[in-house]
């Protein structure tokens, strides 16, 4: 009995340590790195009128077009934010999608962010916990993001005008396909560990002269 308890305690300790390590790694992977100066300046600019164009992004969107887009967003009271700059690998992030995540987190409000960097590396992203339901009646088939081909001064306004009045929808699931799916995935992850504990306990029982499984002996003739 004592050996069995020790085995259970050891197994629980191993599982606890493994879970703590796994949780720490997950947190490390999911937590975005601290934003650099470029992202911080962009966020400050976006708080002013929801449109920010850097010096290197000015060839893609001039001041007149920037003001037109900012006025259009203000008139519609839209959550759209537009950031125009050249792609960079040396600005406090490893990928432009990471930069978009940093901007959305720092804005700290429901936002539909267009990161315009030209036809190949542009992206439209949504604040965590929100989504766009482009198949709903309100969207009426409007695209979830603008066309990145062509002139930003034309493509951005036509996309903003096609958006519904309230383009963002708060997510109600856990981000992994719903609570049921998350529970099922958790069970699948825990199953190998549970089987391992069961095997360890069985081996200890055999080593102490008992049956592998804790089942009562069958009466003779049964």
Report on this structure.
With 222 residues, the chain is α/β, with parallel strands linked by helices. Helix content is 49%, strand content 10%. The protein has six helices and six strands. The protein has helices at 2-30, 37-49, 63-76, 96-107, 152-162, 179-207; strands at residues 51-53, 80-84, 112-116, 123-126, 130-132, 168-170. The protein has a four-stranded mixed sheet, with helices on both faces. A hairpin with a 6-residue loop joins strand 3 and strand 4 (123-126). Helix 1 packs antiparallel against helix 6, helix 2 (37-49) crosses helix 4 (96-107) and helix 3 (63-76) packs parallel to helix 5 (152-162). The longest helix is centred in the N-terminal third of the chain and has 29 residues, at 2-30. It is elongated and about 85 Å long. The two termini are 28 Å apart. Residues 175-183 have low confidence and may be disordered.
- Average residue-wise pLDDT: 79
Query: What is the molecular shape?
Result: elongated
Computed CA radius of gyration, to the nearest angstrom: 27 Å
Question: Strand share of the residues?
Answer: 5-15%
Helical stretch count? 6
Features:
222 residues, 6 helices, 10% strand, elongated
Short characterization:
With 222 residues, this protein is α/β, with parallel strands linked by helices. It is built from 6 helices and 6 strands.
Helix and strand layout, with pairings?
Layout: H1 2-30, H2 37-49, E1 51-53, H3 63-76, E2 80-84, H4 96-107, E3 112-116, E4 123-126, E5 130-132, H5 152-162, E6 168-170, H6 179-207
Parallel strand pairs: 1-2, 2-3
Antiparallel strand pairs: 3-4, 5-6
């Amino acid at each position: 009995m004592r050996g069995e308890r020790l085995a259970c305690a050891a197994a629980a300790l191993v599982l606890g340590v493994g879970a703590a390590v796994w949780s720490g790694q997950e947190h490390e992977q999911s937590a975005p790195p601290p934003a650099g100066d470029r992202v911080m300046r962009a966020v400050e600019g976006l708080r002013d009128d929801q449109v920010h164009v850097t010096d290197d992004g000015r060839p893609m969107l001039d001041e007149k077009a920037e003001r037109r887009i900012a006025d259009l967003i203000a008139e519609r009271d839209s959550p759209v934010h537009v950031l125009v700059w050249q792609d960079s690998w040396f600005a406090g992030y490893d990928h432009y999608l990471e930069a978009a995540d940093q901007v959305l987190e720092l804005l700290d409000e429901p936002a539909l962010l267009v990161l315009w960097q030209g036809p190949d590396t542009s992206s439209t992203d949504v604040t965590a916990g929100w989504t766009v339901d482009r198949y709903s009646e309100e969207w009426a088939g409007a695209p979830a993001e603008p066309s990145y081909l062509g002139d930003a001064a034309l493509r951005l306004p036509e996309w903003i005008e096609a958006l519904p009045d309230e383009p963002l929808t708060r997510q109600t699931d856990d981000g992994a396909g719903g609570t049921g799916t998350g529970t099922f995935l958790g069970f699948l992850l825990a199953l190998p560990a549970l089987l391992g504990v069961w095997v360890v306990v069985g081996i200890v029982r055999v080593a102490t002269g008992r049956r592998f499984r804790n089942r009562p002996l069958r009466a003779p003739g049964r």
